[in-house]
């Protein structure tokens, strides 16, 4: 087995592993999508932190793949790519697009939640008995000795 064949076999192995991690990330994201609609902030953070392990794994695999490409002569670059590489890349892109779409929905839900918190905070601030404790920059608290009648 020459070096190109070894590199090709290793690349194929890494690419299939990337595909598997992408599938796990997609399934995890789909399964936990409803968490972002709820009001349990701790559960949301738990889901986000768990997703980080999938992302870290993908970054690690990307580094390994890049290392193989760096070791290959630029003229042999095409020879190192596995025969099914375009199909695998296409599947990875499609899966990650689905994950991104789900992430956008989750971000939208969190955005609505943040707007609700902001509205409630403003409503509480505007209540007379609470507004006395809130400092604003609209009124200067410095005292001036300037006589405005002059």
Automatic annotation (TrEMBL):
This is FlgN protein.
């Amino acid at each position: 087995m020459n070096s190109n064949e070894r590199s090709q076999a290793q690349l194929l192995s890494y690419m299939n592993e990337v595909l598997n991690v992408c599938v796990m990330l997609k399934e995890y994201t789909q399964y936990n999508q409803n968490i972002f609609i709820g009001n349990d902030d701790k559960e949301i953070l738990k889901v986000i932190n768990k997703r980080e392990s999938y992302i870290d794994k993908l970054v690690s695999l990307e580094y390994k793949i890049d290392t193989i490409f760096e070791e290959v002569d630029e003229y042999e670059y095409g020879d190192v790519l596995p025969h099914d590489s375009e199909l695998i890349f296409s599947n990875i892109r499609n899966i990650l697009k689905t994950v991104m779409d789900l992430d956008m929905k989750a971000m939208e839900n969190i955005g609505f939640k943040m707007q609700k918190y902001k509205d409630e905070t403003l409503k509480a601030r505007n209540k007379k008995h609470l507004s006395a404790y809130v400092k604003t920059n609209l009124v200067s608290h410095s005292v001036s000795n300037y006589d405005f009648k002059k």
